[in-house]
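Section 5: illustrative case.
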């Protein structure tokens, strides 16, 4: 399994709305587990299924020692706003100043198929918004308010600031 980049083979998947999962199958759970491995190797703190070539509404997020694996996630509540710099594993060498909500509530199905609710603040809220955007075909470059908010950097520098 490899990370799909916008300018690489299969990059068009990053611009499409992903299909709902519905019922969790062993294949979807296996996909979640493989995504965690890919995210950690990258390294990143979040990854969406389209980023590894699957048009499914699945995300994985790992932050502050907590791992989240969600199918069909949706943001049900948003509060506050701030601008911060984000990178993306599918856009290597690019950092963007992106306005996001500072608090969100996310609802989705965990790996057992149970509906769970996650309340996220700060950077964790940003990660969830970034990954859910991927499921809708939205990239960080779409979220900038001005072209001046897109920064081109070497890939090594961008690695430390990558969301997913």
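Designed sequence:
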């Amino acid at each position: 399994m490899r990370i799909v980049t916008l300018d690489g083979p299969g990059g068009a998947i990053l611009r499409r709305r992903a299909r709902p999962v519905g019922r969790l199958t062993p294949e979807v759970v296996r996909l979640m587990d493989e995504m965690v491995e890919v995210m950690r190797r990258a390294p990143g703190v979040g990854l969406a299924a389209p980023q590894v070539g699957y048009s499914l509404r699945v995300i994985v997020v790992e932050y502050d020692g907590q791992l989240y694996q969600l199918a069909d996630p949706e943001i049900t509540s948003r509060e506050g706003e701030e601008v911060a710099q984000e990178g993306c594993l599918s856009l290597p060498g690019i950092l963007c100043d992106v306005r996001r909500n500072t608090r969100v509530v996310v609802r989705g199905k965990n790996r057992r198929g149970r509906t769970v609710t996650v309340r996220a603040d700060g950077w964790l809220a940003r990660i969830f918004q970034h990954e859910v955007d991927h499921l809708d075909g939205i990239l960080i470059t779409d979220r900038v308010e001005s072209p001046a908010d897109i920064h081109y950097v070497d890939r090594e520098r961008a690695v430390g600031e990558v969301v997913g």
